[in-house]
Amino acid sequence: MVSPEEARIRLPQLRLDELLEELHARLDAARGTRDRVHSLLEAVLSVGRELDLQQALLSIVEAAAVLVDAEYAALGVIGPDGRRLSAFHTVGVSDEEIARIGPFPEGHGILGELIRHPEPLRLAKISQHPASYGFPAHHPPMNTFLGVPIRVRDQVFGNLYLTEKRGGAQFDEEDLSVILTLAVAAGVAIDNARLYEESRLRERWLQANAEVTHRLMSGGARADVLGLIAERAGEITGSALAAVALPMEDTGSLAVEIAVGMDAEAHRGLVLSMDRSLMGLAFSSALPVTSADVSHDERISLEPPRFGGLGPAVAVPIGTGEAGARGVVLLAREAGRPVFTVTETETLQSFAAQAAIAMELAERRQDAEEVAVLKDRDRIARDLHDLAIQRLFATGMTLQSAGRFIEHEQAAERVVRAVDDLDETIKIIRSTIFGLRTREGAGESGLRARAVRVVGEAAPILGFAPSVRMEGLLDTDVPRAIADHVVAVLSEALTNVARHAHAARTEVVLATDGREVRLSVTDNGVGIPADGRRSGLRNMAERAEQLGGGLELREPEGGGTTLVWQVPLVKP
Length: 572
Fold this sequence. Notes:
Strand content: 15-25%
Order of helices and strands: HHEEHHEEEHHEEEHEEEHHHEHHEEHEE
Distance between the termini: 134 Å
Shape: elongated
Helix content: 40-55%
Largest sheet: 11 strands, mixed
Structural class: alpha+beta
Strand order of the largest sheet: 9-10-11-6-7-8-12-13-14-16-15
């Protein structure tokens, strides 16, 4: 039995032990709080150091998972429409698991709840929330949940999602406070990364502008400059396809001069209408035109097929204002890639406008050089007329007068021949003067424009607009005489298709490599009957034979007819 004295001694001892345990607990809590604050500060500094936007987003997700001891974490970026997620960065789920689960979420269920109501959300069990409707197959089980919005300059950029606190515990108020603090730091870091990214992009656009201007002002060929515009715009925007189209004189159509990237051959040389193509709409309206999915856009003609595997696209006019558009640049990304944002479109429009100014300056300089050449030609022609011809004429008159006094028959004949030679020389000089004062090709229409006009005139008869592709220097390399034959053969071929083929589609390809010109007309009609009239075909064949070429008829896969007419540009 314990004596009263012993009891009095033991009681203070017990109280002291309790006090010591409580002190240890508070010290541990203070140490834990200190460590957590230290971890939070380290996370804030780590996130703030990132200047690459994608890396900054991944660092935010990783830091959030560590700070609240969550097994899974994700950051969903809200898209331009403000209703669904455009990107989803995860931690805790392997690539193999992601592949089995399927596409990333777009913002339904609990994830969409934070999009619709951007306020912190803490749940003990996800399935108990009214907005929850389950997980897809192969998705890991998740119960506890903590979500907070990330704001960048008072705009919700995205949301942080954390699930499954380790040890089976619940996310508490302290976890929420830590994540809210991280979200504020994340917003600043994202803003900095975006500003840095925008400044880098501006720098790249400025370099591209300088490169285009230098190429133009140093006398670079137009095709090279257009190719440079397409390449740089495609590289900077991460596009799979970049193309440049220019208007064709007196045709109301555009011709794709340059195409680089994915399936570029399907675009190069195409002749596009103003109302059934993205580039045509941008040119006629002098405004940018965008498409979320260019391969399924109702505004764009299906023929010929040319946008397979491509998705978001934008067409921007090259130059606007009083001078009007000089052309159009088209950019298209692969299917599934992000759409072109307003900022990207505006930057591309500014780049195209600067390129147009550079083209205008280069053309003005070229015009000035041509004027100088013409003035020099006029001076030479005037000097030849006023000085050389007069002196030659005077010399001829002198010889002619002197010939009457020459008695030697052979000497007199030589003087007469010399006078005749002087007369012929005067004629040659006069012809040269006329040539100097006449600009070559003035008033003539090129083969490209003539061919497009023929196709346009045939469209009402056919009941549809044929697709047209042109390649090579048709206006430069093909002589006028051969061009006349090409136009006549094209007109005859389209007339035959309209009268006899019963076709729903026709493709015209006109190309030259500098050695020969080749015209191909393909339709998907009934073909050429064995007993049908062939007077038109005979005429086309005779034209080809006269020029040393030939006519060939083929039957493409799927039926129809392909007519190939080709002649050499240089006689063998």
